[in-house]
Amino acid sequence: SSLFASVELAPRDPILGLNEQFKADTRSNKVNLGVGVYYDDEGRIPLLESVRKAETALLADAAARSYLPIEGIGSYNQGAQKLLLGADAPQIAEGRVLTVQALGGTGALKIGADFLRSLLPQARVAISNPSWENHRALFERAGFPVETYAYYDAETHGLDFEGMKDSLNALPEQSIVVLHACCHNPTGVDPTLAQWQEIASIVKARNLVPFLDIAYQGFGDGLAQDAAVVRLFANANISMLISSSFSKSFSLYGERVGALTLVTASADEATRVLSQVKRVIRTNYSNPPIHGGSVVSRVLNNPELFQLWEDELGGMRDRIREMRHQLVEKLRDRAPDHDFSFVLTQRGMFSYSGLNAEQVEQLRAEHGIYAVSSGRICVAALNSGNIDYVASAIATVLK
Ligand code: PLP
C-alpha cells in the first residue's frame, strides 16, 4: 500500500478554520473578531510609516544576500534585548543576556523549548488556563508534559490570583512556567505589578523556570511599562527565557520577526548557553532570513525612526483603548442589565467578552459576526464603521 496510507487527517486549527469560514461568508456586513491581528479604523492591516521608511533606505543601499550568522543580525538582537530589559540594564552591561533572532515569537518559543528539553529532560511545563492555543501543542511537540495553572476567573472576569499562586506553589522544582508578560492572550487579563512581585517570589522560592512570552509589547500601557515583569524578574536575579515578537508591534506578521532572549547568571554562562542555543538553530533551519530583521533593526537603531515607530505603536494602542471605551458605552445603552466595564481593565488586543459558545454561534449565524467559541473577541478588529452593528448584535444575543 501507499507510504502515506495510514496518515490521519489532522484536526483543523480552530482559529484559522474560523477565518476560512469568514472568507466564504457572502454577507456584506460581516465582521471578523476571531483574528489575532491589528486592523486600522478602515479595517486594513497597516503598513507602518516607520517600516516603509526603513525599507526605502534598505533598498537604496541594497546589500548582497549572504547567509546571516546562526544567531541572526547582531544589531537586531541588541535592539530586541534593550527593548525588553531597558537600554542601560545592568544585566546587559555584565554580558549576562543573550539574544538570538527567531522566526516570530513562535520560533522563539520553539528554539527555547528544544533547548530546555535537553537541559531539563524531566521537567514539566505549566501554561495558564486558558492560554494562547499554540502553547500546549508547541511544548508537547518539544517532548514535555504540559499542564495548566489557574489563571482566569470567569466570575469576576479577572485574575484568579489565589488559584494561580496555589498552582505555582504546587509545581515541582524546575518546572517550566510559561507566563504572558503583558496583554494576555486570550483573556486580556494581566497581573498587577504587585501581583507580579509575588509571582517572582514564588518562582524564586520554588526554583521554577520562567519562560516569559511577550508578543504584544507596546499594546498595553507602553513599551517600557509592558516589559515591567521582565525587568522585575531580571532585577530579582531570576534566570529566565523570553520569547518576544515584533509581528504585531511592527505589523510585520509575515516577515517572522521575533527573538529569543535568555538572562543568565554570568557572562561565562551566557557564552556557553549561546553555543547550545545556536546548535538548536543550526539543526532546525541553520540561520534566519534577512529582510524583516533588517527592517526592524533599522527602526530600533535609528532614533528618528524609533520615535516614529513608538508614536505609531502608541496610535494603535490608543485606538484599541478607544474601541474598548466605545464598546462598553454602546453596550451600556443597548444592554443595560449587563455590566461590561471589565472590558476597560483588560489589556492588549483581546477581550474575553463573557459570551458563551451558544451566543458566539448566534452572532455568527444571525449577524455574520465571527468570534472564537471561548468568547474571545479581537478588540483591534472593531472600528468606527462596525462597532454600532457589533454592539447591537451582542445586545440581541444577550436577550
Ligand atoms: N505568543 C502569544 C501569546 C501570541 O498571541 C502569539 C501570536 O498570536 C505568539 C506568541 C506568536 O507570535 P508570532 O506570530 O510572532 O509567531
Automatic annotation (TrEMBL):
Cross-referenced Gene3D superfamilies: Aspartate Aminotransferase, domain 1, Type I PLP-dependent aspartate aminotransferase-like (Major domain)
Main EC class the enzyme belongs to: transferase
EC number assigned by the record: 2.6.1.-
Domain Aminotransferase class I/classII large stretches: 29-394
Record has Transferase as a keyword: yes
Molecular function per GO: identical protein binding; L-tyrosine-2-oxoglutarate transaminase activity; pyridoxal phosphate binding
GO cellular component, one term: cytosol
Obligatory cofactor(s): pyridoxal 5'-phosphate
Keywords: Aminotransferase, Pyridoxal phosphate, Transferase
PROSITE patterns in alphabetical order: AA_TRANSFER_CLASS_1
GO process terms (BP): L-phenylalanine biosynthetic process from chorismate via phenylpyruvate
Highest rank taxon of the organism: Bacteria
Listed InterPro entries: Aminotransferase_I/II_large, Asp_trans, NHTrfase_class1_PyrdxlP-BS, PyrdxlP-dep_Trfase, PyrdxlP-dep_Trfase_major, PyrdxlP-dep_Trfase_small
PANTHER family recorded: AROMATIC-AMINO-ACID AMINOTRANSFERASE, ASPARTATE AMINOTRANSFERASE
Subunit-level organization: Homodimer.
Family: Belongs to the class-I pyridoxal-phosphate-dependent aminotransferase family.
UniProt name for this protein: Aminotransferase
Lineage of the organism: Bacteria, Pseudomonadati, Pseudomonadota, Betaproteobacteria, Burkholderiales
